[in-house]
């Protein structure tokens, strides 16, 4: 359950950003996240622990929205970009295993709305 | 003019949206004469009209359904309207930003000309504000990793280690796969050849540190208490004291766990995954994040293979499915089988700097 430390870390970062915006903003209303299927983060677990991490912080009550990103690989043989079935990383086009993951490992904050 | 809502005689508007802020809660009474028209505007774009027809018409009932559509960019909790002319309607709602919702309601009321009627409006929620009253919100675009704080420290650790010429490897596996025993044997074998140091993490006890002491390498135990993984910050706190004796190879034995440690960069040069041959041939496919991210996978406890109904080739296939081209070393720290290959792997890493 490393999602709790992720949630705490996320809130600390967002509070830093909010402070720089000035005192007129006191509350985080909405947090948009990008979650890769190979990020090692479980969305349900993150949503479950978020309220505990947010309690008593400006993020308390904030709405989380997730853009879930599937793994895409670029094949070093045929150069095609395909989405192999998780958790495999072989090229869907030619079956080659010499591939490079181009997305699907990220867990990013893309946007927040403050008031 | 009604003091509370601001509705005026004649064809004038009454804004039931707040005049002085987001939320309001007020009751009021006002009098309409025959022939008077007033318009209630419940939010800034929708209205319903009350017409009090002129003349000496008797008391009558009229029904006027109305619906209004509005789009909010803020949260509502609930609101209620109570009209004492025989209709009471409450509606609570809660919804997200940036979506529209429609709600229609109809009510009927009976009144006589030249009469008095009372409206009690109780609004606990915020109507869509008038432009001048909008609570200021701001959307801030970010492109930051949720793990940015950890990643910053990990990068700092990596840089520090590089400057000191220390190779750090982060050993990750499930509990019981043989990390500590492998390290004991590794420290024995490298004593006098490569100066080593160890940081070992467990939720509780310093048992592992005590097992590895006396082998020529400083050992630090981190007790993580409730945490299921080591973090870059914990490593940063221990780096200087543990490698100050001149260590060139730092082993970081992570908390036994195939999931959480895989997500936390500690600043190591390489992650090394371990899976013992008793754990199940498909373990790497079940926990792909770790095995994909590991520079090498060690298949441990191979001395047990004769007693098990497993095929080591199937373990290798599982690893290769999630990390094609992975380096795989099969070994038994107990029998010594495969240890040479492992030690050569480490020596190459140290020589590579």
Instruction: Give me the Rg of chain B, rounded.
Output: 37 Å
Give the number of helices of chain B: 8
Q: What do we call the CATH topology of the largest domain in chain B? A: Rossmann fold
Question: How big a fraction of the residues of chain A is strand?
Answer: 25-35%
Relevant CATH superfamily of the largest domain in chain B: P-loop containing nucleotide triphosphate hydrolases
What would you say the CATH architecture of chain A is? 2-Layer Sandwich
Mean pLDDT of chain A: 94
Principal-axis shape of chain B equals globular
Instruction: Say what the CATH topology of chain A is.
Output: hypothetical protein PF0899 fold
**Interface with most residues:** A-B, 39 and 40 residues
CATH class of the largest domain in chain B: Alpha Beta
Quaternary organization: heterodimer
Give unreliable regions of chain A as ranges.
none
The largest sheet of chain A, given as strand count, sense and whether it forms a barrel, is: 3 strands, mixed
**SSE class of chain A:** alpha+beta
Radius of gyration of chain A: 18 Å
Q: Judging by the overall fold, what is the CATH architecture of the largest domain in chain B?
A: 3-Layer(aba) Sandwich
Unreliable stretches of chain B (pLDDT < 50, length at least 5) are 1-32, 34-133
The SS-based structural class of chain B is alpha/beta
């Amino acid at each position: 359950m490393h999602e709790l430390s992720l949630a705490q870390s996320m809130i600390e970062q967002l509070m830093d950003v909010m402070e720089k915006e000035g005192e007129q903003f006191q509350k985080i209303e909405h947090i948009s996240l990008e979650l890769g299927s190979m990020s090692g983060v479980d969305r349900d677990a993150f949503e479950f622990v978020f309220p505990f991490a947010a309690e008593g912080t400006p993020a308390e009550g904030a709405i989380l929205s997730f853009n879930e990103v599937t793994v895409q690989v670029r094949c070093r043989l045929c150069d095609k970009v395909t989405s192999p079935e998780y958790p495999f990383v072989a090229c869907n086009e030619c079956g080659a295993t010499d591939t490079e993951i181009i997305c699907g490992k990220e867990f990013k904050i893309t946007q927040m709305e403050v008031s | 003019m009604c003091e509370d809502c601001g509705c005026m005689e004649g064809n004038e508007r009454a804004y039931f949206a707040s005049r002085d802020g987001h939320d309001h809660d007020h009751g009021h009474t006002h009098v309409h004469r025959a022939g008077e028209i007033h318009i209630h505007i419940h939010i800034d774009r929708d209205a319903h009209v009350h017409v009090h027809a002129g003349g000496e018409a008797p008391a009558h009932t009229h029904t006027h359904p109305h619906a209004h559509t509005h789009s909010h960019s803020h949260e509502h909790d609930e609101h209620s309207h109570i009209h004492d002319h025989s209709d009471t309607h409450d509606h609570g709602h809660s919804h997200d930003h940036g979506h529209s919702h429609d709600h229609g309601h109809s009510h009927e009321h009976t009144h006589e000309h030249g009469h008095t009627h009372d409206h009690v409006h109780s609004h606990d929620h915020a109507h869509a504000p008038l432009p001048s009253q909008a609570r200021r919100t701001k959307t801030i675009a970010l492109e930051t990793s949720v793990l940015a704080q950890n990643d910053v420290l990990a990068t700092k650790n990596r840089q520090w280690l590089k400057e000191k010429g220390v190779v750090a490897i982060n050993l990750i596996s499930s509990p019981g796969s043989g990390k500590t025993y492998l390290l004991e044997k590794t420290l024995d074998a490298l004593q006098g050849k490569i100066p080593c140091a160890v940081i070992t993490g467990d939720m509780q006890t310093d048992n592992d540190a005590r097992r590895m002491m006396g082998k020529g390498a400083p050992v630090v135990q981190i007790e993580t208490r409730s945490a299921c993984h080591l973090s870059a910050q914990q490593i940063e706190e221990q780096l200087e004291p543990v490698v100050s004796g001149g260590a060139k190879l730092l082993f970081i034995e992570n908390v036994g766990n195939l999931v959480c440690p895989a997500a936390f960069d500690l600043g190591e040069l390489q992650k090394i995954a371990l899976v013992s041959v008793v754990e199940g041939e498909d373990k790497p496919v079940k926990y792909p994040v770790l095995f994909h991210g590991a520079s090498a996978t060690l298949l441990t406890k191979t001395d047990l293979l004769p007693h098990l109904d497993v095929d080591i080739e199937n373990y290798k296939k599982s690893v290769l499915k999630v990390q094609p081209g992975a380096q795989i070393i099969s070994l038994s720290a107990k029998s010594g089988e495969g240890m040479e290959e492992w030690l050569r792997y480490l020596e190459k890493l140290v020589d590579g700097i």
